[in-house]
Amino acid sequence: MNSALCTSLFVLSAVSFAHADTVPDSHAPIGVMGDHIHKQGEVMFSYRYEVMSMQDNLDGDREISAREIVSTIPNRFAGMPGMPSMLRVVPTHMDMDMHMLGLMYAPNNRVTLMGMASQMNKRMRHTTYQGGMGTTRLGRFEAISKGWSDTKIRALIRLNDDHRHRWHATFGLSLPTGSLQETDVVLVPNGAHTRLRLPYPMQLGSGTYDLLTGLTYSGGFAPWGWGAQWQSTNRLGRNDEDYTLGNSHLVQGWVSRRVNRVQSLSLRLIARRAGNVDGRDLRIMAPVQTADPGRQRYRRTEWWLGTNVVLAKGHRLALEIGRSLTQTVDGPQMDLDWQAMFGWQWSL
């Protein structure tokens, strides 16, 4: 795992002597978005840095080797000019890191407005096999895409707050500010290096206005805190490239325990699912699984360990590290290995 993240965890654990006027677990773990409501006039700035690593492949819920993929998995585009009958390019490793800038403002005690902009960097390594049949490797290449992703705006609406139990609903939109036209030079099965439009997981946005809905509960009885959240992203219409990403849904729950007056530890469990792509970008066509709109659906559960630390009045640092528990995919698809998120929040 990235040594910098381990160092960050050590640093967060080491600053428990810092002075603070608030408790560390008044916010959920840093990976929970839109977890709390502010009082009228309050403003909060946030920065999050997320990293994700995927490697190897799954088909359904079982591991599948690159050799098995190119020997047994048919190419969706077989029969089109220059297209082999079987998959001939296999992704073997993917790294993603994302910088997220957030702003929350409460115009009154019932509603908190929230906006988030994200900058994303994706790198996917592939092995290309010689055209036709067989398992002879032709070479390797790495595809890269980077830029701004979609921008999200939300309204968090207080439903109930008796200090020990709090409920709020979330409504918002994801704005299509991320690119759908990312390209890179790839190694194709005939041995040529060609610039192509990258497959769906390497693009930076959805291209559609997406409806964001959710419901969040949080509670606590010192030194314990807990919470649960449902969030959904529903795509509205088709994008300019004539496809729609699958809807996605998330249910998660967490529990935290205050270690002392400035630090808490947390455990979070997540269940996610996302659907296949509806339609197709006619410029995305290659003998690789990521170019197939019917090989994007997944169901996954994850666990995350985290810590919150209050450094000074209004400032909070946090870190979470997570791994998958179970995964089932319309495969082949890449296997999630680990994730981490570091964050800073400043309330005024």
Task: Briefly say what this structure is.
It is built from 2 helices and 17 strands. The chain is mainly β. The protein has a single domain (3-347), classed as Lipocalin, CATH 2.40.128.
Task: Report helical residue fraction.
Answer: under 10%
Proportion of beta-strand residues: over 45%
Low-confidence stretches: 3-21
The number of E-state strands comes to 17
Major β-sheet profile: 11 strands, antiparallel, barrel
The CATH topology label is: Lipocalin
Mean pLDDT: 93
- Domain count, please report it: 1
Tell me the Rg in angstroms. Answer: 22 Å
Span of the ends, CA to CA = 35 Å
**What structural class should be given to the helix and strand makeup?**
mainly beta
Main CATH class: Mainly Beta
**Shape call:** elongated
Main sheet: strand order: 1-3-4-6-7-10-11-13-14-16-17
The CATH superfamily is: Autotransporter beta-domain
CATH architecture: Beta Barrel
Order of helices and strands: HEEHEEEEEEEEEEEEEEE
User: If helices are DSSP runs of H or I spanning 4 or more residues, what is the number of helices?
Assistant: 2
